[in-house]
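B., you asked whether I could sanity-check this one before it goes into the benchmark set. Here's the sequence:
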Amino acid sequence: MTYFDSDNIDFNMIYRNKIGNIKDRKMSEFNFKILHNILPCNANLYKWKKKTSDTCSFCNVVEDIPHMLY
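And here's what the prediction gave me:
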């Protein structure tokens, strides 16, 4: 699933602003995981065979990264 138009994005700028320039290591790792879609949400855990369901425990829809964050 694509959430943005990748043709008009400067990935070097995103890396510098969201990962490279942040001094807090945990925050830069969190941003790295979001940008690379490896944050452990239910959809990813289900895909990685760590959970039996990919649905949100509160609203019973697929819990991907945007759903988990918002």
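One thing to flag: The mean pLDDT is 85. Otherwise nothing jumped out at me.
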